Amino acid sequence: MRTASFPTSDLMNETPVTLSVNGCLKGIRLSIPILPGAMVFGAVFGTVCAQKGLSFVETMMINSLVFAGAAQFVAMELYQAQLTYGIMLAMIGVTAAVNMRMLLIGASLRPWLGSVPGWQTYPALYLLTDINWLLSLREYGKGERDWGIYLGSGVFLWFMWAISVIPGYLAGSVVADPSIWGLDVVLPAFFAVMLVPLWKGKRQTVSWGVAGLCSLATWYVFGGYWGIMTGAVSGALAGALIDE
Amino acid sequence: MNDQIIAADWMFTATVLGMAVVTYAMRAGGYWIMGQVPLTARVRRALEALPGAIIVSTILPIILKGGVSTVMALIAAILVMALIRRDFVAVVLAAVVATLCRLGGL
């Protein structure tokens, strides 16, 4: 829809953005390293839901429809068997707060997907997670222009996440502890290693430094997830202001 | 409360739908807004700086909460990535290093 006002020609090179089955399969393959960490996280969520007294259908519903790990956990902290409108609004509110970083993650995909028609991108954005965002970003940096990377990994991760709650739910009181086998560091490590290909020089050093300081300051004062927003926005502004 | 495995409370269902809608609004909203903004050189530089800034802002609090084993694991992962550029190896090594540090009482 907006493609006319969005010349891709000045974005690095003229290669058009494509979509293919092979690209989707590559996306699936690339997301395999993160799978054990993600699925244990999902199993723990299943256990939490069982302990809170959700039915199996309710558990499958919240997990597959919301599809946002950290937000689901925080919302379930607030859940009570006797739901009131207040709890309902609080659960929706914390979900919005925890997922606010998605605004920025989505914004950063604009150069990648901007030339793809909206009827394809907007449904596909339902599948946006930290993981397929990181993968897509890395491959874009390497010159990849097949957005099947994003779509394939998104569909695959959604499916695996949807079924990952089942063992945890059925096991009930058997709480899986992600810190056994170090599975709790898998996702942070996946984030951290992405910094390596992203680092190019002074602009990154300065903007990341600004982001880190703002994020930590916010985290100390307010806790929670606000530091991601303040850090990311200040880092992006710093990056914009540093000239070549 | 839930005698039946298939039971789904209507208020819970409404809550879940609300959570899904706000999450989708975040997922699609940022992308949509950037489609309304002309992609000047400055905007592009901001978008280029954004991913790294998001990553740094996300992992720093995790590192501070996680303690020594998390720090060691992430340092190992970044070093391996810088040397051989294999994310799979880096991530597996991070899990191994974290486990070893914890076994060692760190």
User: What is the typical, i.e. mean, pLDDT of chain A?
Assistant: 88
Number of helices of chain B: 4
| H/E topology pattern of chain B | HHHH
Q: With helices defined by DSSP (H or I, 4 residues minimum), what is the helix count of chain A?
A: 13
Poorly predicted segments of chain A: 1-13
Q: Which protein chains make the most extensive interface, counting residues with beta carbons within 8 Å of the other chain's beta carbons?
A: A-B, 103 and 81 residues
Helix content of chain A: 55-70%
Shape of chain B: flat
How many domains make up the 3D coordinates of chain B?
Answer: 2
Give the distance, in angstroms, between the N- and C-terminal Cα atoms of chain B: 43 Å
Give your account of this protein's structure.
- Chain A has 244 residues and is mainly α.
- Chain A has a domain of 162 residues.
- Helix content of chain A is 68%, strand content 0%.
- Chain A has 13 helices and no strands.
- In chain A, helix 12 packs antiparallel against helix 13.
- The N terminus of chain A is likely disordered.
- Chain B has two domains: 37 residues; 57 residues, no CATH class.
- Helix content of chain B is 82%, strand content 0%.
- Chain B has four helices and no strands.
- The longest helix of chain B has 27 residues.
- Chain B is flat, with a radius of gyration of 21 Å.
